[in-house]
Fold this protein.
Amino acid sequence: MRGKRLALAMMMAGVGPAVFAPPLLAQSKPAETLKIDKARIDAALKGMIADGRAAGTSVLIWQDGREVYFGTAGMADREAKRPMRRDTIAQIYSMTKPVTGVALMQLWEAGKFHLDDPLSKYLPEYANMRVYAGQDAAGQPRYVPAERPITVRDIMRHSAGFVYGAGPTPAHDAYVAADPLALTIPLAEASRRLATAPLLYQPGTQWEYSIAVDVQAALVEKLSGEPFAGYVRAHIFEPLKMTDTAWRQPDAKLPRFAAMNVKKDGKLVQQDAAAAQTLNFRDNVLTPGGFGLASTLDDYQRFARMLLNKGELDGARILKPSTVKLMATDQLDPAIKERAWLPGKGAVGFGFDFAVRKSPPQAAEENRGAVGEFFWDGAASTLFWVDPANKLTAVFFVQTMPYDGTLHRDFRAAVYGADYKGPAGD
Protein backbone atom coordinates (compact mmCIF):
# COMPACT_ATOMS: atom_id res chain seq x y z
CA MET A 1 0.00 0.00 0.00
CA ARG A 2 2.88 2.38 0.78
CA GLY A 3 4.19 1.87 -2.75
CA LYS A 4 0.77 2.68 -4.20
CA ARG A 5 0.49 5.88 -2.18
CA LEU A 6 4.01 6.89 -3.25
CA ALA A 7 3.31 6.28 -6.91
CA LEU A 8 0.01 8.15 -6.82
CA ALA A 9 1.57 11.11 -5.00
CA MET A 10 4.32 11.27 -7.60
CA MET A 11 1.79 11.05 -10.39
CA MET A 12 -0.02 14.07 -8.98
CA ALA A 13 3.17 16.06 -8.61
CA GLY A 14 4.47 15.17 -12.03
CA VAL A 15 3.75 15.94 -13.99
CA GLY A 16 -1.45 17.51 -18.34
CA PRO A 17 -14.51 27.92 -26.49
CA ALA A 18 -15.62 31.00 -27.80
CA VAL A 19 -12.40 31.78 -29.62
CA PHE A 20 -10.38 29.25 -31.62
CA ALA A 21 -6.98 29.45 -33.20
CA PRO A 22 -6.74 28.51 -36.89
CA PRO A 23 -6.68 24.75 -37.47
CA LEU A 24 -3.26 23.60 -36.39
CA LEU A 25 -3.04 20.55 -38.62
CA ALA A 26 -3.22 22.72 -41.72
CA GLN A 27 0.21 24.29 -41.40
CA SER A 28 2.48 25.31 -44.22
CA LYS A 29 5.66 23.37 -44.78
CA PRO A 30 8.42 24.22 -42.33
CA ALA A 31 11.00 26.75 -43.35
CA GLU A 32 13.69 24.26 -42.38
CA THR A 33 13.92 20.74 -43.74
CA LEU A 34 14.13 18.37 -40.82
CA LYS A 35 16.45 15.40 -41.18
CA ILE A 36 16.90 13.01 -38.29
CA ASP A 37 20.50 12.80 -37.06
CA LYS A 38 20.87 9.33 -35.56
CA ALA A 39 24.28 9.98 -34.01
CA ARG A 40 23.03 13.12 -32.30
CA ILE A 41 20.07 11.30 -30.74
CA ASP A 42 22.25 8.35 -29.72
CA ALA A 43 24.61 10.73 -27.95
CA ALA A 44 21.77 12.50 -26.15
CA LEU A 45 20.35 9.24 -24.81
CA LYS A 46 23.75 8.04 -23.64
CA GLY A 47 24.33 11.41 -21.97
CA MET A 48 21.14 11.05 -19.93
CA ILE A 49 22.48 7.78 -18.53
CA ALA A 50 26.01 9.10 -18.00
CA ASP A 51 24.93 12.12 -15.96
CA GLY A 52 22.53 10.12 -13.79
CA ARG A 53 19.23 11.60 -14.92
CA ALA A 54 17.97 8.27 -16.27
CA ALA A 55 18.68 4.61 -15.70
CA GLY A 56 17.40 3.63 -19.13
CA THR A 57 15.93 5.37 -22.15
CA SER A 58 14.32 4.31 -25.42
CA VAL A 59 13.04 6.22 -28.43
CA LEU A 60 11.00 5.49 -31.55
CA ILE A 61 10.49 8.10 -34.29
CA TRP A 62 8.47 7.88 -37.49
CA GLN A 63 8.63 10.41 -40.31
CA ASP A 64 7.06 10.45 -43.78
CA GLY A 65 5.34 7.15 -43.13
CA ARG A 66 8.38 5.14 -42.10
CA GLU A 67 10.50 4.42 -39.07
CA VAL A 68 13.52 6.74 -39.07
CA TYR A 69 14.95 6.11 -35.61
CA PHE A 70 14.94 3.49 -32.91
CA GLY A 71 17.46 3.52 -30.09
CA THR A 72 18.00 2.66 -26.45
CA ALA A 73 20.53 3.41 -23.74
CA GLY A 74 20.99 2.08 -20.24
CA MET A 75 19.02 -0.42 -18.24
CA ALA A 76 15.36 -1.24 -17.77
CA ASP A 77 16.37 -2.89 -14.50
CA ARG A 78 19.84 -2.12 -13.17
CA GLU A 79 19.67 -4.64 -10.35
CA ALA A 80 18.79 -7.46 -12.74
CA LYS A 81 21.19 -6.09 -15.39
CA ARG A 82 18.34 -6.09 -17.90
CA PRO A 83 18.83 -3.52 -20.68
CA MET A 84 16.15 -1.32 -22.21
CA ARG A 85 14.66 -3.11 -25.20
CA ARG A 86 12.09 -2.42 -27.83
CA ASP A 87 9.50 -4.57 -26.03
CA THR A 88 10.17 -3.11 -22.56
CA ILE A 89 6.91 -2.09 -20.87
CA ALA A 90 6.90 1.33 -19.18
CA GLN A 91 4.45 3.10 -16.92
CA ILE A 92 3.24 6.08 -18.95
CA TYR A 93 1.16 7.85 -16.27
CA SER A 94 -0.46 10.97 -17.80
CA MET A 95 0.17 9.82 -21.36
CA THR A 96 -2.97 7.82 -20.52
CA LYS A 97 -4.93 11.07 -20.79
CA PRO A 98 -4.87 11.47 -24.61
CA VAL A 99 -6.17 7.90 -24.92
CA THR A 100 -9.11 8.78 -22.68
CA GLY A 101 -9.77 11.92 -24.71
CA VAL A 102 -9.89 9.91 -27.94
CA ALA A 103 -12.38 7.50 -26.35
CA LEU A 104 -14.67 10.34 -25.28
CA MET A 105 -14.47 12.05 -28.67
CA GLN A 106 -15.53 8.82 -30.35
CA LEU A 107 -18.75 9.11 -28.38
CA TRP A 108 -19.05 12.76 -29.38
CA GLU A 109 -18.83 11.66 -33.01
CA ALA A 110 -21.63 9.19 -32.26
CA GLY A 111 -23.84 12.08 -31.11
CA LYS A 112 -23.90 11.06 -27.45
CA PHE A 113 -23.26 14.60 -26.16
CA HIS A 114 -22.51 18.19 -27.14
CA LEU A 115 -19.22 19.72 -26.05
CA ASP A 116 -20.94 22.61 -24.31
CA ASP A 117 -23.54 20.49 -22.53
CA PRO A 118 -23.51 20.82 -18.76
CA LEU A 119 -21.60 17.91 -17.29
CA SER A 120 -24.48 17.44 -14.85
CA LYS A 121 -26.74 16.43 -17.76
CA TYR A 122 -24.92 13.09 -17.72
CA LEU A 123 -23.33 13.03 -14.26
CA PRO A 124 -25.96 14.69 -11.99
CA GLU A 125 -23.60 14.91 -9.02
CA TYR A 126 -22.10 18.06 -10.58
CA ALA A 127 -25.39 20.00 -10.65
CA ASN A 128 -24.80 22.39 -7.75
CA MET A 129 -21.10 22.99 -7.41
CA ARG A 130 -19.59 25.36 -4.86
CA VAL A 131 -16.44 27.43 -5.44
CA TYR A 132 -13.87 28.34 -2.81
CA ALA A 133 -13.80 32.14 -2.45
CA GLY A 134 -11.15 32.80 0.17
CA GLN A 135 -11.67 33.52 3.86
CA ASP A 136 -14.12 35.71 5.72
CA ALA A 137 -13.20 38.27 8.40
CA ALA A 138 -13.04 35.50 11.00
CA GLY A 139 -10.62 33.50 8.89
CA GLN A 140 -13.20 30.89 7.92
CA PRO A 141 -13.40 29.61 4.33
CA ARG A 142 -16.04 31.16 2.09
CA TYR A 143 -17.87 29.31 -0.66
CA VAL A 144 -20.07 30.71 -3.41
CA PRO A 145 -22.23 28.99 -6.03
CA ALA A 146 -20.67 28.25 -9.41
CA GLU A 147 -21.59 31.06 -11.80
CA ARG A 148 -22.18 28.62 -14.63
CA PRO A 149 -22.24 24.84 -14.98
CA ILE A 150 -19.12 22.82 -15.70
CA THR A 151 -19.30 21.77 -19.35
CA VAL A 152 -17.90 18.73 -21.09
CA ARG A 153 -15.53 21.08 -22.89
CA ASP A 154 -14.23 22.22 -19.49
CA ILE A 155 -13.25 18.71 -18.42
CA MET A 156 -11.39 18.20 -21.71
CA ARG A 157 -9.33 21.39 -21.50
CA HIS A 158 -8.73 21.54 -17.69
CA SER A 159 -10.93 24.56 -17.07
CA ALA A 160 -13.56 22.92 -14.82
CA GLY A 161 -12.11 24.20 -11.55
CA PHE A 162 -11.13 20.84 -10.04
CA VAL A 163 -7.96 20.36 -8.02
CA TYR A 164 -5.59 17.38 -8.18
CA GLY A 165 -4.30 16.34 -4.78
CA ALA A 166 -3.05 18.16 -1.71
CA GLY A 167 -2.53 21.92 -1.75
CA PRO A 168 -2.77 25.18 0.18
CA THR A 169 -6.54 25.77 0.23
CA PRO A 170 -9.59 24.23 1.92
CA ALA A 171 -10.65 23.08 -1.57
CA HIS A 172 -7.51 20.95 -1.67
CA ASP A 173 -8.19 19.68 1.84
CA ALA A 174 -11.71 18.65 0.84
CA TYR A 175 -10.34 16.84 -2.19
CA VAL A 176 -7.89 14.88 -0.05
CA ALA A 177 -10.65 13.97 2.41
CA ALA A 178 -12.91 12.77 -0.42
CA ASP A 179 -10.08 10.58 -1.79
CA PRO A 180 -11.62 10.31 -5.28
CA LEU A 181 -8.71 8.32 -6.71
CA ALA A 182 -8.78 5.56 -4.11
CA LEU A 183 -7.83 2.37 -5.93
CA THR A 184 -10.59 0.41 -4.21
CA ILE A 185 -13.55 2.23 -5.81
CA PRO A 186 -15.06 2.27 -9.32
CA LEU A 187 -15.07 5.33 -11.58
CA ALA A 188 -18.69 6.18 -10.80
CA GLU A 189 -17.89 6.40 -7.09
CA ALA A 190 -14.73 8.39 -7.84
CA SER A 191 -16.87 10.93 -9.68
CA ARG A 192 -19.41 11.15 -6.85
CA ARG A 193 -16.66 11.70 -4.30
CA LEU A 194 -15.04 14.42 -6.40
CA ALA A 195 -18.33 16.29 -6.70
CA THR A 196 -18.48 16.70 -2.90
CA ALA A 197 -15.32 18.84 -2.94
CA PRO A 198 -15.59 22.56 -3.80
CA LEU A 199 -14.04 23.92 -6.96
CA LEU A 200 -10.85 25.96 -6.78
CA TYR A 201 -12.11 28.60 -9.23
CA GLN A 202 -15.16 29.45 -11.32
CA PRO A 203 -15.61 27.11 -14.32
CA GLY A 204 -14.04 28.41 -17.51
CA THR A 205 -11.91 31.10 -15.90
CA GLN A 206 -8.54 29.36 -15.41
CA TRP A 207 -6.42 26.47 -16.64
CA GLU A 208 -5.45 24.12 -13.82
CA TYR A 209 -4.23 20.57 -14.41
CA SER A 210 -6.66 18.33 -12.60
CA ILE A 211 -8.58 15.11 -12.10
CA ALA A 212 -10.85 16.13 -15.00
CA VAL A 213 -9.64 13.31 -17.26
CA ASP A 214 -10.78 10.74 -14.71
CA VAL A 215 -14.18 12.44 -14.96
CA GLN A 216 -13.92 11.96 -18.73
CA ALA A 217 -13.46 8.24 -18.09
CA ALA A 218 -16.55 8.15 -15.87
CA LEU A 219 -18.45 9.91 -18.65
CA VAL A 220 -17.27 7.33 -21.20
CA GLU A 221 -18.71 4.61 -18.96
CA LYS A 222 -22.00 6.47 -18.54
CA LEU A 223 -22.49 7.26 -22.23
CA SER A 224 -21.30 3.93 -23.62
CA GLY A 225 -22.80 1.64 -21.01
CA GLU A 226 -19.50 -0.27 -20.98
CA PRO A 227 -16.69 -0.51 -18.41
CA PHE A 228 -14.10 2.11 -19.31
CA ALA A 229 -11.17 -0.28 -19.80
CA GLY A 230 -13.31 -2.59 -21.92
CA TYR A 231 -14.47 0.29 -24.10
CA VAL A 232 -10.92 1.51 -24.68
CA ARG A 233 -9.67 -1.97 -25.45
CA ALA A 234 -12.44 -2.68 -27.98
CA HIS A 235 -12.54 0.72 -29.68
CA ILE A 236 -8.89 1.87 -29.59
CA PHE A 237 -6.35 -0.79 -28.60
CA GLU A 238 -7.68 -3.74 -30.57
CA PRO A 239 -8.31 -1.82 -33.83
CA LEU A 240 -4.82 -0.27 -33.58
CA LYS A 241 -3.22 -3.62 -32.66
CA MET A 242 -1.85 -2.16 -29.41
CA THR A 243 -1.41 -5.57 -27.85
CA ASP A 244 0.89 -4.54 -24.98
CA THR A 245 -1.06 -1.55 -23.64
CA ALA A 246 -3.36 -2.00 -20.66
CA TRP A 247 -4.19 -1.02 -17.10
CA ARG A 248 -4.03 -4.66 -16.07
CA GLN A 249 -1.15 -6.68 -17.50
CA PRO A 250 -0.99 -10.49 -17.34
CA ASP A 251 1.62 -12.07 -15.11
CA ALA A 252 3.58 -13.29 -18.13
CA LYS A 253 4.37 -9.68 -19.11
CA LEU A 254 5.51 -8.42 -15.72
CA PRO A 255 9.19 -9.40 -16.29
CA ARG A 256 9.21 -6.96 -19.22
CA PHE A 257 8.37 -3.97 -17.01
CA ALA A 258 11.01 -1.29 -16.59
CA ALA A 259 11.86 -0.57 -12.98
CA MET A 260 10.89 2.82 -11.57
CA ASN A 261 13.72 5.07 -10.44
CA VAL A 262 13.28 7.88 -7.91
CA LYS A 263 15.82 10.66 -7.49
CA LYS A 264 16.94 11.01 -3.86
CA ASP A 265 19.79 13.28 -2.78
CA GLY A 266 20.72 13.78 -6.41
CA LYS A 267 20.93 10.09 -7.29
CA LEU A 268 18.47 7.71 -8.89
CA VAL A 269 17.32 4.94 -6.56
CA GLN A 270 15.67 1.93 -8.16
CA GLN A 271 12.39 0.92 -6.55
CA ASP A 272 11.65 -2.67 -5.70
CA ALA A 273 9.64 -4.81 -8.10
CA ALA A 274 6.36 -4.28 -6.25
CA ALA A 275 6.74 -0.48 -6.41
CA ALA A 276 7.69 -0.61 -10.09
CA GLN A 277 4.46 -2.43 -10.89
CA THR A 278 2.26 -0.58 -8.43
CA LEU A 279 0.15 1.01 -11.14
CA ASN A 280 -0.50 -2.30 -12.84
CA PHE A 281 -4.14 -2.36 -11.83
CA ARG A 282 -4.76 -6.11 -11.69
CA ASP A 283 -5.71 -6.04 -8.02
CA ASN A 284 -7.58 -2.73 -7.93
CA VAL A 285 -11.11 -1.67 -8.77
CA LEU A 286 -10.34 1.80 -10.16
CA THR A 287 -9.46 2.15 -13.84
CA PRO A 288 -8.48 5.82 -14.01
CA GLY A 289 -8.67 7.90 -17.15
CA GLY A 290 -5.79 10.15 -16.14
CA PHE A 291 -3.05 7.61 -15.45
CA GLY A 292 -2.32 3.93 -15.02
CA LEU A 293 -1.62 2.62 -18.52
CA ALA A 294 1.56 0.70 -19.21
CA SER A 295 2.72 0.44 -22.81
CA THR A 296 5.57 -0.25 -25.22
CA LEU A 297 7.26 2.08 -27.70
CA ASP A 298 5.66 0.37 -30.68
CA ASP A 299 2.19 0.37 -29.18
CA TYR A 300 2.17 4.03 -28.24
CA GLN A 301 3.76 4.94 -31.53
CA ARG A 302 0.80 3.32 -33.29
CA PHE A 303 -1.50 5.59 -31.27
CA ALA A 304 0.61 8.63 -32.24
CA ARG A 305 0.72 7.62 -35.90
CA MET A 306 -3.06 7.30 -35.93
CA LEU A 307 -3.31 10.90 -34.76
CA LEU A 308 -0.77 12.10 -37.34
CA ASN A 309 -2.72 10.26 -40.03
CA LYS A 310 -5.88 12.15 -39.06
CA GLY A 311 -7.56 9.40 -37.10
CA GLU A 312 -6.74 6.30 -39.15
CA LEU A 313 -3.97 3.70 -39.23
CA ASP A 314 -3.63 0.62 -41.42
CA GLY A 315 -7.31 0.69 -42.35
CA ALA A 316 -8.58 1.20 -38.78
CA ARG A 317 -10.57 4.42 -38.50
CA ILE A 318 -10.52 5.62 -34.87
CA LEU A 319 -11.62 9.25 -35.32
CA LYS A 320 -12.64 11.51 -38.17
CA PRO A 321 -9.97 13.92 -39.47
CA SER A 322 -12.05 16.87 -38.33
CA THR A 323 -12.21 15.46 -34.80
CA VAL A 324 -8.43 15.09 -34.56
CA LYS A 325 -8.09 18.65 -35.83
CA LEU A 326 -10.50 19.85 -33.14
CA MET A 327 -8.62 18.03 -30.38
CA ALA A 328 -5.32 19.50 -31.62
CA THR A 329 -6.67 23.07 -31.73
CA ASP A 330 -6.13 25.44 -28.82
CA GLN A 331 -9.34 25.53 -26.77
CA LEU A 332 -8.31 28.19 -24.25
CA ASP A 333 -10.06 31.52 -24.61
CA PRO A 334 -7.48 34.36 -24.55
CA ALA A 335 -9.33 35.68 -21.49
CA ILE A 336 -8.04 32.66 -19.55
CA LYS A 337 -4.86 34.26 -18.24
CA GLU A 338 -4.18 32.04 -15.21
CA ARG A 339 -2.61 28.88 -16.61
CA ALA A 340 -0.63 27.41 -13.70
CA TRP A 341 2.56 25.79 -15.04
CA LEU A 342 1.35 25.33 -18.64
CA PRO A 343 3.55 28.20 -19.97
CA GLY A 344 6.52 26.17 -18.79
CA LYS A 345 5.79 23.80 -21.67
CA GLY A 346 6.65 26.59 -24.12
CA ALA A 347 4.61 28.83 -26.41
CA VAL A 348 1.56 26.58 -26.15
CA GLY A 349 -2.17 26.51 -25.68
CA PHE A 350 -4.24 23.50 -24.76
CA GLY A 351 -6.63 21.45 -26.85
CA PHE A 352 -8.51 18.34 -25.74
CA ASP A 353 -6.02 16.42 -23.60
CA PHE A 354 -3.00 17.76 -25.52
CA ALA A 355 -0.78 20.80 -25.25
CA VAL A 356 -0.68 22.57 -28.63
CA ARG A 357 2.30 24.59 -29.86
CA LYS A 358 1.13 27.98 -31.17
CA SER A 359 4.41 29.80 -31.81
CA PRO A 360 8.03 28.92 -32.57
CA PRO A 361 10.34 28.58 -29.55
CA GLN A 362 10.69 32.04 -28.01
CA ALA A 363 13.91 31.53 -26.05
CA ALA A 364 17.03 29.40 -26.19
CA GLU A 365 16.02 27.37 -23.15
CA GLU A 366 12.58 26.47 -24.55
CA ASN A 367 11.94 23.00 -25.94
CA ARG A 368 12.46 22.73 -29.69
CA GLY A 369 9.45 21.92 -31.85
CA ALA A 370 7.24 22.97 -34.73
CA VAL A 371 4.12 25.12 -34.70
CA GLY A 372 1.06 22.89 -34.88
CA GLU A 373 2.52 20.01 -32.91
CA PHE A 374 0.48 18.52 -30.10
CA PHE A 375 1.90 16.51 -27.25
CA TRP A 376 1.77 15.33 -23.66
CA ASP A 377 4.01 13.62 -21.15
CA GLY A 378 3.92 11.55 -17.97
CA ALA A 379 5.03 11.79 -14.35
CA ALA A 380 7.88 9.30 -14.92
CA SER A 381 9.29 11.72 -17.55
CA THR A 382 7.90 9.91 -20.61
CA LEU A 383 6.91 12.02 -23.63
CA PHE A 384 5.26 11.84 -27.03
CA TRP A 385 4.40 14.34 -29.70
CA VAL A 386 2.77 14.59 -33.12
CA ASP A 387 4.35 17.07 -35.54
CA PRO A 388 2.17 17.46 -38.66
CA ALA A 389 4.46 20.07 -40.25
CA ASN A 390 7.30 17.55 -40.42
CA LYS A 391 5.03 14.48 -40.76
CA LEU A 392 6.72 13.15 -37.63
CA THR A 393 5.80 11.33 -34.44
CA ALA A 394 8.14 10.65 -31.53
CA VAL A 395 7.82 8.52 -28.40
CA PHE A 396 10.35 8.78 -25.57
CA PHE A 397 10.39 6.31 -22.67
CA VAL A 398 12.21 6.64 -19.38
CA GLN A 399 11.23 5.81 -15.79
CA THR A 400 12.57 8.75 -13.78
CA MET A 401 10.73 10.39 -10.89
CA PRO A 402 10.08 13.10 -10.04
CA TYR A 403 9.37 14.44 -13.51
CA ASP A 404 12.52 15.81 -15.17
CA GLY A 405 11.82 18.24 -18.00
CA THR A 406 15.51 18.57 -18.86
CA LEU A 407 15.30 15.11 -20.44
CA HIS A 408 12.65 16.38 -22.84
CA ARG A 409 14.60 19.49 -23.69
CA ASP A 410 17.69 17.47 -24.53
CA PHE A 411 15.78 14.88 -26.52
CA ARG A 412 13.93 17.49 -28.56
CA ALA A 413 17.20 19.34 -29.24
CA ALA A 414 18.66 16.07 -30.51
CA VAL A 415 15.68 15.51 -32.82
CA TYR A 416 15.34 19.04 -34.19
CA GLY A 417 18.70 20.66 -33.54
CA ALA A 418 19.37 23.16 -30.80
CA ASP A 419 18.44 26.19 -32.94
CA TYR A 420 15.39 24.81 -34.74
CA LYS A 421 12.32 27.04 -34.87
CA GLY A 422 10.33 25.55 -37.76
CA PRO A 423 7.30 27.21 -39.35
CA ALA A 424 6.05 30.57 -38.13
CA GLY A 425 3.07 30.67 -35.81
CA ASP A 426 -0.22 32.48 -36.11
